[in-house]
Amino acid sequence: MTKKHVSFAATKTVAEFHIAHNPTTVPHVGPSVGLVGPPICISSVPILDEDEVVATQGKKRRALYMEPVRRVVMLRRQGYSMEDIGRICIQADYVKQCRKETALAYLVEKRLLVESKSTDLHVKPNTPGVLV
């Protein structure tokens, strides 16, 4: 009998992008910014050992978040006017509202479907599991 083993690559591929206005990103507050365009740099880097990965977990989370004020400043530096940024925020709020309404409609539809199925099933008394 032969032993089987799994091995993984010792490197990972990292793609870097520009950050700018991206209407597909919808933040909780402020203008929507995200990755834009093709990658500006693609590189292979060695995978860190587990101790280093655990130590950098919190840093990655914080590095991905950009405060709303920083997003506004970034967009201003890219040439957006405050009116444009205001429209971007209104558009993001509209998208959030539409997503909430869609999710609510889906939940209501699922609940009605479950209720209609449960009222269609009647069980004979004293006979568990037998449907009429």
From TrEMBL:
Name of the protein this chain belongs to: Uncharacterized protein
Source species of the chain: Aphanomyces astaci (Crayfish plague agent)
